[in-house]
Amino acid sequence: MPPTAKETKANKASTAKKATKTTKVAKKAGNPAEFSNFEPYKPKRGEKYMNEAQHAHFRAILRNWKSDLMQEVDRTVSHMKDEAANFPDPADRATQEEEFSLELRTRDRERKLIKKIDSTMELIDQNDYGYCEACGVEIGIQRLEARPTATQCIDCKTLAEIKERQEMG
Predict the structure, then answer these.
(1) Side-chain half-sphere of 103: how many Cα atoms within 13 Å?
(2) Does the 5-129 domain belong in CATH 3.40.50.1820?
(3) Domain ranges in the chain?
(4) Whose CA is closest to 110, among 152, 57, 65, 61?
């Protein structure tokens, strides 16, 4: 028997609602890594690399980034509590489980990033921040603003990526 107009309308509404939720989850998944809400540091002429002003600048960036990630964790927990439902339809249940799985994977990646942010804050406290762990060269302010948790200069990172690609095949 073909579905009635009422059933067809209900199915379309359900599908549209799922698509909207999936889009929201996808947008959220890419969003927390962004930390572009800062003023780029403008070094003064003759200024020493990684001085107190620069340390304060990067500390603020890292603190704000970590705060944003922690807020996302809280939102995920409340979202999962609010959205948890036992759908009678297996397809709806599977969709919900897939959404939760995606959110949990994203939060796991963010948890690892929070650990990396914490270790970067320790590097700042030890005055080791901003220098390549492989060769000791200055990483550079612009690179650190692009990726505040960077531990290698662009040259060492490029070499490491090439070696990784060669080993992986």
Answers:
(1) 23
(2) no
(3) 5-129, 130-169
(4) 65
